[in-house]
Amino acid sequence: MKHKTKEAIVGYVFSLPIIITVIVFTIYPIIAAFYYSVTDYQPLEARKFTYTFNPYESLEFNTGILREEAKDYPLDQMIQSFDPVTFVEIDVGVNLSDEDKESIRKNFDSLNLLSDYRDRKLPTEIKISDFLMKYMKSDGERFAKYRPKFVGLENFKQMFKDMYFYTSLSNAFLYSIVVVPIQTLLAIILAVAANSKIRGKNFFKSVFFLPAVTSSAALSMIFWLIYSKPGILNQVLMSLFGRFGFQPIDYLNEPGIALFAIMLMNIWSTAGYFMITFLAGLQDIPSSIYEAAMIDGATGWQTFWKITMPLLRPQIVFVSIMGTIGCMQVFDQIYFLIKNLRNITISFYIYKNAFEYGKMGYASSLAVVLFAIILALSLIQRKVVKEEY
Amino acid sequence: MEKKSSKKNWPVIISYIVLIAYAIATLFPFTWALLVSLTPITYTDENGNPHGVNIFDWPPNVKLFPRPSAFGAPLTFQNYKLIFEVVPLYGRWLLNTVIYAGLLTIGNFLLDALGGYAFARLKFPLKDMWFTLFLATMMVPSQVTLIPQYNMLVNYGLINTYTGMFLPKLTNIFGLFLMRQFFLNFPKELEEAARIDGSGILRTYFTIVLPNAMPGVSALAIYTFLGAWNDFQWPLIIASRKEMYTLTVGLNFFKSSYYTYWQYMMAASIFMTIPMIIIFLSFQKQFIETGRAVAVKG
């Protein structure tokens, strides 16, 4: 075999696991999400035919004839009093759409089912979809696979009327607008400080990195304690400002404050992590530039704004893009700490719609909107960099 | 002369002030949580009288002598033992977290590195197309893929299973890029020498490339383990049965069922953080270097 062919084969063998998992677990879901977004996908509807049931019990309920005695009853008499729609809807227990009923009325093979019942040929446990597939003369496939109703752009139109869509989206924007600049600036200040001639650089780096290795779940719990009404934050503030009339604040339950409390926590937990990025950038700036500036008589302040900041531009862009993407998707802290729907963010609202309200179609359309926003923000930020270089 | 040198020192002094202040701000929440986690819920004094402990007492009354105490009660590690008894499933959650993070780490360790090497070094048809496609999917937020992924797992009966939990996360495009970047900077001479000696691509990879690539691959493994250990949203969705919770989801259970037992909640929070701190402190260099490499690339 030629080396080139061999290389191509090995290349595919090596990259196939990742190609397959990406296709199955990322690319297919992306396509599916866009499809869901124009349907009324409801998980409960999707699952209703996947449950199992015992046909004997359902038939006993329906006919009033015990399975052992069914043999003694004439088949035509049984058929006459048998209504397949009532049977499926009430005795099997599935909600049917009008089209489903129509189809069952037309295609259900009652004769086959009842004679199997009499001959005791039914299974004692069967999936509803398999059962219907078996006893429908045709059109049984409609129960095999759930097809959500196509609603066109209805979900997107609904958003305009949905107050919580506006609230959660503007909260996500507010969150990013507050958190990203502050955490970036703080990270730069820390990096500049750590880059000066000081001892214990590694100690500071490790300490600042600590929140980044802690799960947001644990951090949320810790801040829940700190932010609670009798908690330490209020105690400290009381001892400092109590005499000026300061009253304890229930930070996480106060709608005007809760989101800001979480922003503060977020800044605290990421500034140190991003500091590492800036420190790397600072170490790449040749010290001769600073020496030249000093000879020219530049003050520390001038050096910072005229030399350090412009040279850190790539890192600033990187940190602000990563920060914005992260902030727009903030979920864990909101899930743990926010109780008021007025303070939720869009990713939490997507979760709520999909997994609590059972509205996956609508949730998907919200996710598509979030995707479009994140894409637009990253493209804008990327474009800004390109123009600069 | 004297004036000049003191002026020169100002930036260093300010730097120290900034760094120490922020270090205190960073460490304080952890220290406070640790203190609360070490405080018993009730204790018995020398006379055998039981006392309740209020962790909201102010001031906290922290004493190191004659024995460490806070809020009037002697400090103890018993809460760390008690969380396993109060919530009998806690041990199971720990096991689940170890399994989830472990499987993910092994999967990413093997497959991302393999793919990264192929994309960095080997020529195969449609390589650029796949690469562009992967790059594009990185822009897609997880909220988009979450719902269809969940439905897919429901259809295959994989909800509340380890397989369902780790299979979709077995590879990571970010890890692939990291590894590709690593192998692009990897000296080619080693492989060429092996090839001249007649070693095939496969053998070269496993005997020459991978052992020498350990610094890069282990950084990926550490990052993956950390990310999986701390992951919340995915286990929250996939594990609806309590037996399948991970520690992060379990924390949420503590919050809803033991919300007045701050000592337990803090013990659980600190408990799940300690392994990560140990890992971080032992592999500090890889962490900070990877953070740096990612930033430079971006």
Brief descriptors of the model:
heterodimer, A: 389 residues, MetI-like fold, two-stranded antiparallel ribbon, 71% helix, elongated, B: 298 residues, mainly alpha, globular, disordered N terminus
Can you walk through the features of this model?
The complex is a heterodimer of chains A (389) and B (298). With 389 residues, chain A is mainly α. Chain A folds into 3 domains: 3-36; 46-144, no CATH class; 155-388, MetI-like fold. Helices cover 71% and strands 1% of the residues of chain A. Chain A contains 21 helices and 2 strands. Chain A has a two-stranded antiparallel ribbon with strand order 1-2. The longest helix of chain A has 34 residues, at 3-36. The mean pLDDT of chain A is 90. Chain B has a two-stranded antiparallel sheet. In chain B, β3 (69-70) and β4 (73-74) form a beta hairpin. Chain B is globular and about 80 Å long. Classes of the chains: A mainly alpha (389), B mainly alpha (298). At the A-B interface, α1, α2, α11, α12 and α13 of A face α1, α3, α4, α5 and α9 of B.
